[in-house]
Structures are given as C-alpha cells and as structure tokens.
C-alpha cells in the first residue's frame, strides 16, 4: 500500500449539515462524543497501511487543520502524513473548487509529484469501517483503470441513490442517477457476481456507488485533462469514461451510512447507543478509529440515572436523568435536568467554580446545561450555554425552521442549537 496516495474530499460548504458547518468544515463536525467525521476515512487509511493522505477542503478549514495536526503525527512512518489542501485562487485557477473533480484537478500538479501507482479517492462524510487494501488489491487483480466501491441496496433505498449495472465480468457498463419506475427496474443486477449470497442477492438486486474510487495514476490525470470542464466524479467523469476505460465494481457488504444531512447525522449518532450490537461499533481492537488524545479526567456522575447512552471523557453530570443520548467531551449537566434522544457535543474548555459563580451573579449562563432543563430530540452544538428551566422539546412539532437570530434551527423536527450561543433562562423551544 506504499504505492497508494489517499485523497479525502472534504466537501463544499456543507449546506445539508448547516448549522453544524457554520463555524467549521464538514469533516471537522464532532461525532460520537469524542471523534470528528474526518477520523473515519483517516483511520480506515491507517488501518489499511495507507499513510500518505491529503484532505481537500475550502470552507472554515482552521479547526480541521488544527485537529489533523494534533491527532496524526507520523513520526515513525517514512513519508507518512495527513495534510489539508485548502482551496486557493491562482492565476491558472482563479475560481474556488467547483466540485469533487475540480478540487482534485486544481491540485493535480502536487499530487503528480508523488511516485505512486494509484489514487484512492474518499468522501469525508460517511460512517463505515473498510479495509482499503482489499479494495486496491481487487483493482490490481482485474487490471482496472477505475474501481468503484458499491453497496448492495433494496427496492426502498435504490431510487434515492446513484445506481450502476455490471456485466458478467464485473465491469461497469451503465449508470443511472436516482432512477424511478421502469428505469429503476432496468438497473437490477445479479449481485452474486460480486460475491453476495443468493439469498442476499434476491433482497438487494441493485448496486449503488459509495463515492469511493481507486484510479490508476495516469488514468486520473488523463481524464481530468480530457474533461477539463467537468466538475464532478460521480455525475460526469466516471459515467463518461465507461465506454473507453475498464471500470470495475468492488462490493462492500457491511455497514455504510451517508451522514451528510442533519437527520442522517443525528440518527447515526444515536444508533451507536443501541444494545447489544449497534450497526457500527467503535469497540473494535483490530481496526480502531483514531482521534486526538486529550488526556481528560474521567467522567463524574453524581446521583444521575443514565440509560442507553454514551458519555465522553471529562463530563460532570449531577442528579439528572439521561436516556438514549450521546454526551460529548467536557459536557456539564446540572441537577434536575432530563436529557432524552439528544446529541450533546460538549465543550472545548472548562470553567472553574469561581468563573461559573461570577457568570451567574451577573445574570449570565455558565457553559453546559442549567438546572431543571429538559431537552428532547435535539443536537446541542459545542460550547452552548443553556440556562435554567429551559424546555427544548419542539413543543409545536415544527419540522423546518430558521431561528438563527435566536440561536437555533429545526431540521426534520430536530432542534439544532448553534455552537457558542446562549439560550436564556426559562426559554421554551
């Protein structure tokens, strides 16, 4: 795997995850109480012994850069690195990144300097665990120009995804973006050709792109030069190259979730609390998910009732009830609170007792969740200050709302409190 260079596409402005992306790049969004989205593909690379990794992004990349610098230091690896390549305007490229392919094209001069055989193109907003070494080996065994990682899907999921057809040799011969009706039925394939059992193949007669690709080095350079106006891999470059190049499909038959929307992100986080066996687990010694080590103290729980929840390090939880929730690092919850079906992202800092007392005496909210507050079906972003006797329960069952001036949004009925905001005492949402 020393001959592979990984390129993680950090995405655009992250509008589907807004307001979580208001102050940070999409790959820097916190995940599962202590990680960030970028930790998933980077950890998969490291576990696959791929240690030359670039992350392409163009929006709010400061916190992402800081996280990667502190978390991934390959002092013992030869040529190992994880680096952010932010969008830049030059005389040759006066525009910002226009899409996935354009992002790679603008840095092709730098990527081409590496003596590698393949480029591994990854997405920064998926939750899954994958051995990329098997993926690359399949690419080499079939002498493919491009190999696409695909997941088997059923009739329910297929109309919402980009589908493809393969021939008897596993070569990709046709693409269709979110087909319906007869067009959908024409995209059915025999997924036993890719290694699925007959029973599973019957239930999942379609294959959908995961947005993960392996390119031969020279093929990627040729395609980006040939289709110089194309901006997207999945919608333009790869479908257009099917007739002239050997495109192969690699079946990934395991948990994979696109968490690029607020609802999907929320559901994927809370699914981690499921017992006894969540669909995705961070408890895997053979393929761990890495992140920045913070050396925080253990979490302290004082007369708290906690059920079906995950709690990060360094939290202080007092005389409250927490159910089916994920609490991020340094979360602080005062007495009398009820937290249900909620993702708390925690805090970037601690406030000492004198600091908290001073804030309260001046009528201000300390960081964390104030006394006698109830929160249900919500995402509370980092460093939020929630006052006492607050109700965040979406009382009117609103599905969509923009209340940025008040410090929150509602997406698919989920209340999202913006990073660093204060919700005053007695507020009802």
Automatic annotation (TrEMBL):
Residue runs in coiled coils: none
One MF term in the entry's GO annotations: glucose-1-phosphate adenylyltransferase activity
Positions marked as site (Could play a key role in the communication between the regulatory and the substrate sites): 58, 96
Residue ranges of domain Nucleotidyl transferase in the record: 6-274
InterPro entries, per database record: ADP-Glc_PPase (IPR011831), ADP_Glu_pyroP_CS (IPR005836), GlgC_bac (IPR023049), NTP_transferase_dom (IPR005835), Nucleotide-diphossugar_trans (IPR029044), Trimer_LpxA-like_sf (IPR011004)
A Pfam family hit: LbH_GLGC
Record keywords, A-Z: ATP-binding, Carbohydrate metabolism, Glycogen biosynthesis, Glycogen metabolism, Nucleotide-binding, Nucleotidyltransferase, Transferase
Residues holding alpha-D-glucose 1-phosphate: 162, 177-178, 209
Catalytic activity: alpha-D-glucose 1-phosphate + ATP + H(+) = ADP-alpha-D-glucose + diphosphate
Pathway membership, UniProt: Glycan biosynthesis; glycogen biosynthesis
Enzyme nomenclature, EC number: 2.7.7.27
Functional note: Involved in the biosynthesis of ADP-glucose, a building block required for the elongation reactions to produce glycogen. Catalyzes the reaction between ATP and alpha-D-glucose 1-phosphate (G1P) to produce pyrophosphate and ADP-Glc.
Assembly description: Homotetramer.
NCBIfam families: glgC (TIGR02091), PRK02862.1 (NF002772)
Annotated family: Belongs to the bacterial/plant glucose-1-phosphate adenylyltransferase family.
Protein name: Glucose-1-phosphate adenylyltransferase
Species the sequence originates in: Synechocystis salina LEGE 00031
């Amino acid at each position: 795997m020393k001959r592979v260079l990984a390129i993680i596409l950090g995405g655009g402005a992250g509008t589907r995850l807004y307001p979580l992306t208001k102050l940070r790049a999409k790959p820097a969004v916190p995940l599962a109480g202590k990680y960030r989205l970028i930790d998933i593909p980077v950890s998969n690379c490291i576990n696959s012994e791929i240690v030359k990794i670039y992350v392409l992004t163009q929006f709010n990349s400061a916190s992402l850069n800081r996280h990667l610098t502190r978390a991934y230091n390959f002092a013992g690896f030869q040529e190992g690195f994880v680096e952010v390549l932010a969008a830049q305007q030059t005389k040759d490229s006066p525009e910002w990144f226009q899409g996935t392919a354009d992002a790679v094209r603008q840095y092709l001069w730098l990527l081409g300097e590496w003596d590698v055989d393949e480029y591994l193109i990854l997405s920064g907003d998926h939750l899954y665990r994958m051995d990329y070494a098997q993926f690359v080996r399949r690419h080499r065994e079939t002498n493919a120009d491009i190999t696409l990682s695909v997941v088997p899907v059923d009739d329910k999921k297929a109309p919402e995804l980009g589908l493809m057809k393969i021939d008897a040799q596993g070569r990709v011969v046709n693409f269709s973006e979110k087909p319906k009706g007869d067009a959908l039925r024409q995209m059915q394939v025999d997924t036993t050709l890719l290694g699925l059992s007959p029973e599973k193949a019957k239930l999942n007669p379609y294959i959908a792109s995961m947005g993960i690709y392996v390119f031969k080095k020279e093929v990627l350079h040729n395609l980006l030069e040939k289709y110089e106006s194309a901006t997207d891999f999945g919608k333009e470059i790869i479908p257009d190259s099917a007739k002239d190049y050997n495109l192969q499909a690699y079946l990934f038959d395991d948990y994979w979730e696109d968490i690029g929307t607020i609802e999907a992100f929320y559901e994927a986080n809370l699914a981690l609390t499921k017992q006894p066996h969540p669909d995705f687990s961070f408890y895997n010694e053979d393929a761990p998910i890495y992140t920045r080590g913070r050396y925080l103290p253990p979490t302290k729980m004082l007369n708290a009732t906690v059920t079906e929840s995950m709690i990060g390090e360094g939290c202080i939880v007092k005389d409250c009830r927490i159910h089916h929730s994920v609490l991020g690092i340094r979360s602080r919850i005062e007495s009398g609170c009820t937290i249900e079906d909620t993702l708390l992202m925690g805090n970037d800092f601690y406030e000492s007792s004198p600091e908290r007392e001073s804030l309260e005496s001046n009528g201000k909210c300390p960081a964390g969740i104030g006394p006698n507050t109830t929160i249900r079906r919500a995402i509370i972003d980092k460093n939020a200050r929630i006052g006492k006797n607050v109700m965040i329960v979406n009382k009117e069952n609103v599905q969509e709302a923009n209340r940025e001036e008040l410090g929150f949004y509602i997406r698919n009925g989920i209340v999202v409190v913006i990073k660093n905001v204060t919700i005053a005492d007695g507020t009802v949402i």
